[in-house]
């Protein structure tokens, strides 16, 4: 191959992570519109707050980790890798939606300044988890792909 295997893995990670971060930034504009122009309480789904963005980072991290590490075992069977990535990502999404509607955890679904301060550590944890999880997934994927005989 004219390109190193490690460069192939790096390129795929760069594409996925760039797309995922762009998606989060794109939703920010809609979040601002929602908060400033539609002050009605959100009855369906989680409010566009720090918990929402933390959940997004966790979903992306888990998908990337399980998808890439599985895919680069063989560099084939992309469907199997996709399902392995989707299952934990879906579980986090469902869990986030569910717990944000439990009355004692209502602060997770709030846009109040006091509640946003409580959500900040969750978001920061998710951001660190996103960075560390993707770095680990990249390292594992790169090592696995080096062993694959194309």
UniProtKB/TrEMBL annotation:
Keywords of this protein's UniProt record, alphabetized?
Membrane, Transmembrane, Transmembrane helix
Alphabetical list of InterPro entries matching this protein? ABC2_memb-like
Q: Does the keyword Membrane apply?
A: yes
Transmembrane regions: 12-35, 50-69, 81-100, 120-138
Superkingdom to which the source organism belongs: Bacteria
Q: What is this protein called?
A: ABC-2 transporter permease
């Amino acid at each position: 191959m004219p390109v190193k295997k490690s460069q192939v893995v790096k390129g795929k990670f760069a594409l996925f992570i760039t797309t995922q971060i762009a998606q989060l930034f794109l939703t920010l504009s809609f979040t601002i519109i929602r908060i400033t122009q539609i002050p009605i309480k959100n009855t369906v789904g989680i409010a566009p707050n720090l918990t929402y963005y933390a959940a997004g980072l966790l979903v992306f991290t888990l998908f990337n980790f399980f998808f890439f590490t599985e895919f680069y075992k063989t560099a084939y069977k992309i469907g199997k890798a996709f399902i392995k990535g989707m299952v934990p990502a879906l579980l986090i999404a469902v869990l986030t939606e569910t717990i944000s509607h439990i009355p004692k955890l209502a602060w997770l679904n709030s846009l109040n300044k006091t509640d946003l301060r409580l959500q900040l550590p969750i978001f920061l944890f998710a951001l660190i988890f996103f960075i560390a999880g993707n770095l680990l997934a990249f390292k594992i994927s790169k090592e696995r792909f080096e062993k694959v005989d194309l």
